[in-house]
What does this fold into?
Amino acid sequence: MSKDEIFEAVKSIAVEELDVDESKVTLDANIKNDLEADSLDVFEIMNELEDKFDIELDADDSVQTVGDVVDFVEKQLAAK
It folds into this structure.
């Protein structure tokens, strides 16, 4: 799966979970500051991604931007 496909999936989930405009979800967007997600929102997004990609995600504090999430999912898929 390409990085673009992963980004599109992350963007779709973020738009749905956070009720934000699609244009706000960029690779550089900070999940908490730019998209106004709280800890529960981040948890929900990670759960959706786990279900979609059938992977385990343990997000730590280094995951701050949408791009970080995409990279994290990409690494988990590669290790699968």
Remarks:
- The chain has a mean pLDDT of 93.
- The CA atoms of residues 29 and 40 lie 18 Å apart.
